[in-house]
Design brief:
It is a single chain. The protein has a domain of 229 residues: Alpha-Beta Complex (Amidase signature (AS) enzymes). It contains 16 helices and 11 strands. The protein has an 11-stranded mixed beta sheet with strand order 1-3-2-4-6-5-10-11-9-7-8, with helices on both faces. α6 packs antiparallel against α16 and α10 crosses α12. The radius of gyration is 21 Å and the shape is globular. Bound molecules: glutamine. The site of glutamine has 14 residues, from loops.
Amino acid sequence: MIHGELRCVEVVQSYLDKIETSAHLNAYVAVYAEEALNRASQLDQKKHDPTTWGNLYGVVIGLKDVLCYEGHEVTGSSAILKNHQAIYSATAVQRLIDQDAIIIGNLNCDEFAMGSSNENSVYGNVLNALDESRVPGGSSGGSAVAVQADLCMVSLGSDTGGSVRQPADFCGILGIKPGYGRISRYGLLAYASSFDQIGLFSKNTEDLALVLSVISGVDEFDSTCSNETVPNYVSALKEEKKFKIAYFPESLEHPSLDPEIRKSIETLIIQLKSDGHTVEPVSFNYLDHIVPAYYVLTTAEASSNLSRYDGIKFGYRTPGPIEDLNALYKKTRSEGFGNEVKKRIMLGTFVLSTGYYDAYFAKAQQVRRLIVEKTDEVFSSYELIIMPTVPSTAFRFGEKSNDAIEMFLGDLYTVYANLAGIPGISIPLFKHSNGMPFGLQAMSNRLQETVLLQFSNQLLRQSD
Ligand code: GLN
């Protein structure tokens, strides 16, 4: 990805020009033009001496609007945080900067990362650059389109239930969600803390591997961050392997799956077998339980995480009139949050309340436990699980926004990895007869991102 003879300033300027001509896609909510150019010219001063370069020297990166970058706005694309400036940088962001990356701007998303279409942003819709009447996916829609339309080299998003893999699928690019604990969540606005993970978008596996190596690894500011050694993802890419792959027949037989997507994956399975990989069916009986379990658990966590936005310490505060403190909270939150977020806070509060806790929250936790156990069992015999990333290709604006259940059911294949805490990737392999791309999703055992990157690299090289 390093840009040969070009100076960093020229590279940044070409991205800025492209961002300007693509402004209607609404991928960026803020562009740090002057700052990025200054940084590029500083980096150009050491161009003659590669021994002084950081691992991401001159790499131009965009950040989802849920990642803190000191001194820059971070709003979760919500009115309640409009104009809020981060007072520190997320660990992942700081590591990018320390390795000479250039942060070019802040990317649009669904409010507080809740959604699958980027229709829930206070900044408005992001358009899919391949067909502007269609959604880019969500919640990291801006991050996906920024890479899709060449408005940066790599972007960061967050994935709580598919928000990196699903928009990657809809936009025809790579999107990886590392295993839970691989990347520190310090400085990531929390949605559902036991599910949230920073993820990455790119058009090639080398860039994913390189940036992932830089931002991963133990962090004293996040106790859930793994202290396992970060593998050398870049050198691992060179290895050619035969994989042991499982697939769940239930995932391909599901009535919501587009028949063309099903056919493509079935054909790929035959191809993989003839290439010498082991590909076997493994029965998975929980498919219809994973979306409900996901929405009970994540809304419960969200209702707690979002209680901090109350108009007192930071963000929006209602102009009044205010009778008492409770009225201040109520008005601020009623005015500041959008409908999707309000709905989820109420749902989460409900499933945690006395009398309902055991029926919903505790039950969903039990389902999660069963899913984790089943996952361990599968990975005791296989290295990978493959399935579709999404049951359909990118849909049109408005097509699902009035039907919450249908929108939620679109997360059928992605929420599994977050419930189990395993890594997942969407690999852009296919094109539908409607002209839209779609991906193959691959998942590996806990913190085994290397396997995903190797597998993706092999498949993409073959499809070139
Ligand atoms: N679409 C899912 C949701 O709405 C996933 C969101 C995410 O991964 N942040 O919750």
